[in-house]
Amino acid sequence: MSANGPDMAADFTIEQDWQGYREEDHAVWRLLFERQQKLLIGRACDEYLDGLGALGVAAGGIPDFRRLSDVLEHTTGWRIVAVPGLVPDAVFFAHLSRRRFPSTCFIRRRDQLDYLQEPDVFHDICGHLPLLMNPVFADYMQAYGEGGLKAQGLGHLRRLARLYWYTVEFGLIATPAGLRIYGSGILSSAGESVYCLDDPRPLRLGFDLRRVMRTRYRIDRFQESYFVIDDFAQLFAATRPDFTPIYREIAALPDIEPDTMLGCDCRCAVAAEGKKMGRSKSAAQV
Ligand SMILES: [Fe+2]
């Protein structure tokens, strides 16, 4: 340990120091985990719940990253790397492109159960890790890292960041049983897990790559728009093309506010209405 905290490598990685967690840290994890498990049955997508179970992430306490990494690596080739907090974009993308997921180690305090501006270990592990057990989503995350490095060079990071926000962090997925959550920002939030599916106010729109990249977002409140994918294969296929001409195309178009619906948007029904989820177009032209 250095005077400034854990010894940090050039790629911003540190040791998790699992032995250093206090009983209070594990108790906060248990509170968060048990609360989310009650909420997420019937709300989280099956891929998430399957991944959570297969990883063995449970209420017992903050997991040891090495144990989780061994399971994850065996399944999809990913590993967790511990980091002290948010890392520079280039470092984050480089880790993802090498199938290494950067996770913070600290856990929020008991008086911060409902809101924390920065990701903590509960968000990173319980929110992000289970879907990295899914082979298609695991490939999507690696491709995102490669795309991030490229977008930085092209000066379009702002637009690519919106893709991460509206998929990895706040994505919804259509299933025959109704809309389900796959975004980690929702999965680790008790309030937004309910709001995103039950509240009539937010827009729930069919995923469209260009639309997503043009849509601003707010980090200090529940989302005003969610984008709904049909499945992870659709997401991966939609984001596979070279983004260079797409960035050029949308750079000429205005950004879209998160509470705005366009005439070309497809609105998704929350309740199941058959396999196609009852999408309907808005009559409003903006
Ligand atoms: Fe996150």
Tell me roughly what share of residues is in helical segments.
40-55%
> How big a fraction of the residues is strand?
5-15%
| SSE ordering | HHHEHEHHHEEHHEHEHHEE
Question: Low-confidence stretches at least 5 residues in length (pLDDT < 50)?
Answer: 273-286
Note down, in words, how this protein is organized.
Strand 1, helix 4 and strand 2 form a beta-alpha-beta unit. The chain is globular, with a radius of gyration of 19 Å. A 4-stranded mixed beta sheet has the order 4-3-6-5. A two-stranded parallel ribbon has the order 1-2. The protein is 43% helix and 11% strand. The protein contains 12 helices and 8 strands. The protein has helices at 23-40, 46-55, 65-76, 89-97, 121-128, 135-154, 157-169, 184-187, 190-198, 209-214, 232-238, 244-251; strands at 79-83, 100-104, 172-175, 178-181, 203-206, 225-229, 266-267, 280-281. The protein starts with 22 loop residues before the first helix and ends in a 5-residue tail after the last strand. With 286 residues, it is α/β, with parallel strands linked by helices. Helix 6 runs antiparallel to helix 7 (157-169) and helix 6 packs parallel to helix 11 (232-238). Fe (ii) ion binds next to helix 5 and helix 8.
